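ARCHIVE CARD
CATEGORY: sequence design from structure
SOURCE FIELD: tokenized fold
FIELD CONTENT:
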């Protein structure tokens, strides 16, 4: 369970392409060579332009190469790739490209796009409330995706599958069921940052480094630091603040209202409402310990009995325990 690379794109590398793979486009004041090459293990675009200007000939070249290191090494993207994996995949990729008539030199390559992720051995659906807490911090943009099942019961028709959270124009955070996506015989949930176009370069600049491939290959810990620091900033601190600022105060307020209404009912001879916890279920309990805190604060007379009842009926709402398990994997001591 490591933080690693899924998909990655390079630009500014040098390459020579077999003429049969290129198209020539004649221009009024020059010529343009273009190629768009898609294979199972990589995709590549190539644009070379030679233009005649008043100052003489001008040439520009832009190449972009996208691939998944783990697919090259192991023929799947279930695992992510370490820096050592990336190095091995690059050597194999050079051989693959050469057999296709493409010679590359990655010495000066820069990273355009990168996907960084971690796989956690948990069921997405069983932890959905925890993942929903991630999404609640970006409620205006977050989107959920679900699949339709072949179940007979209507309550089981839908299966939650992923959450997409755009953080900016070029940065997306995803949480999804990797076992569903890859049809795995075991449970696996993936948390993934997708840094596109200038996003990765911008992140590098904040750490005082560049977005060169050479830096990434020489720095074993950079992607881990980047992933963890962004996660703290984008989600973790905000999530615990949201629980203290929104979820717990709402439960406390509704609990007090329920008790006050019952006290007023007794005074006026009206029938009391029953089961404060069922009343609170229409709000977000999130964790059963939040209910215990309410009982300890407002119901000292029947505290023991009520706490026992909460543990028996609501211990399945153990989302703090689930969240801490996830965080211990991402942020090991």
């Amino acid at each position: 369970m490591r933080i690693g690379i899924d998909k990655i794109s390079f630009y500014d590398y040098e390459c020579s392409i077999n003429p049969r793979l290129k198209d020539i486009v004649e221009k009024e004041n020059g010529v343009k060579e273009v190629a768009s090459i898609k294979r199972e293990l990589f995709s590549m675009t190539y644009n070379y332009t030679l233009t005649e200007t008043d100052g003489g000939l001008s040439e520009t070249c832009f190449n972009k190469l996208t691939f998944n290191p783990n697919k090259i090494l192991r023929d799947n993207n279930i695992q992510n790739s370490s820096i050592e994996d990336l190095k091995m995949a690059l050597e194999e990729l050079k051989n693959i490209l050469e057999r296709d008539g493409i010679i590359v030199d990655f010495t000066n390559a820069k990273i355009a796009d990168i996907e960084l992720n971690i796989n956690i051995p948990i069921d997405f659906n069983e932890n959905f409330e925890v993942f929903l807490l991630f999404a609640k911090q970006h409620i205006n943009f977050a989107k959920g995706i679900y699949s339709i099942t072949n179940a007979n019961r209507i309550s089981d028709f839908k299966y939650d599958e992923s959450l997409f959270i755009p953080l900016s124009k070029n940065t997306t955070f995803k949480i999804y069921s990797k076992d569903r996506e890859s049809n795995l015989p075991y449970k696996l949930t993936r948390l993934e940052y997708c840094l596109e176009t200038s996003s990765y370069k911008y992140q590098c600049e904040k750490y005082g480094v560049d977005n060169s491939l050479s830096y990434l290959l020489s720095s074993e810990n950079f992607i881990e630091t980047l992933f963890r620091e962004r996660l703290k900033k984008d989600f973790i601190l905000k999530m615990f603040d949201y629980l203290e600022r929104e979820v717990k105060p709402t439960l406390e307020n509704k609990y007090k209202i329920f008790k006050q209404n019952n006290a007023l009912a007794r005074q006026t001879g009206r029938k009391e409402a029953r089961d404060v916890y069922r009343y609170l279920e229409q709000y977000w309990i999130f964790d059963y310990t939040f209910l215990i805190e309410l009982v300890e604060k407002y119901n000292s007379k029947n505290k023991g009995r009520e706490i026992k009842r909460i543990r028996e009926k609501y211990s399945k709402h153990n989302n703090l325990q689930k969240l801490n398990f996830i965080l211990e994997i991402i942020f090991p001591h």
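CARD ANNOTATION: Residues 222-268 form the longest helix (47 residues). The chain has a mean pLDDT of 92.
SHELF: design records, drawer C
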